[in-house]
Amino acid sequence: xxxxxxxxxxxxxxxxxxxxxxxxxxxxxxxxxxxxxxxxxxxxxxxxxxxxxxxxxxxxxxxxxxxxxxxxxxxxxxxxxxxxxxxxxxxxxxxxxxxxxxxxxxxxxxxxxxxxxxxxxxxxxxxxxxxxxxxxxxxxxxxxxxxxxxxxxxxxxxxxxxxxxxxxxxxxxxxxxxxxxxxxxxxxxxxxxxxxxxxx
Length: 200
Description:
Layout: E1 2-3, E2 5-10, H1 12-18, H2 24-33, H3 35-44, H4 46-50, H5 56-65, H6 74-88, E3 89-91, E4 100-101, H7 104-114, E5 143-147, H8 149-161, H9 164-168, H10 172-191, E6 194-199
Antiparallel strand pairs: 1-4, 2-3, 2-6, 5-6
């Protein structure tokens, strides 16, 4: 079975602030930007929607309004929050993390640790859930995690302290993934924004 990470550089204060804001104009703007993606999602989840799950737009409405939520369909609210993050931020390169197999994030974390980079872990993106009051998605899909600019600044300093020999000793695929993470860190530090990622 394969998985994927969707990372974003985002103004998390604005993204979190959208939850329960009851901002109808914002909801319409997000809905307009992601209209095609929502239609595709509704096709993909047609069976669940027929069984009672909210459409993607109805899930977005609930997130912006602060509820009501149906805990049985937490995944839809997680995906709605991903749209909000996409609205207030931008996608980051995920070539090293889409698709990937079970155990890959742990291998990348081992590579980071081997270089002395301990301030962040990519595994953090695989077991969290979107912010309250959004219900926890069943089976943690999508899972969610965050790296703060402060964490990224520390991790970047740790990376810079690693020797060329230590980097070259890593498996090339792991090094490529670590370098992707370093690029995310640099973006975070340069822009003062969080790295967030959704794990599918």
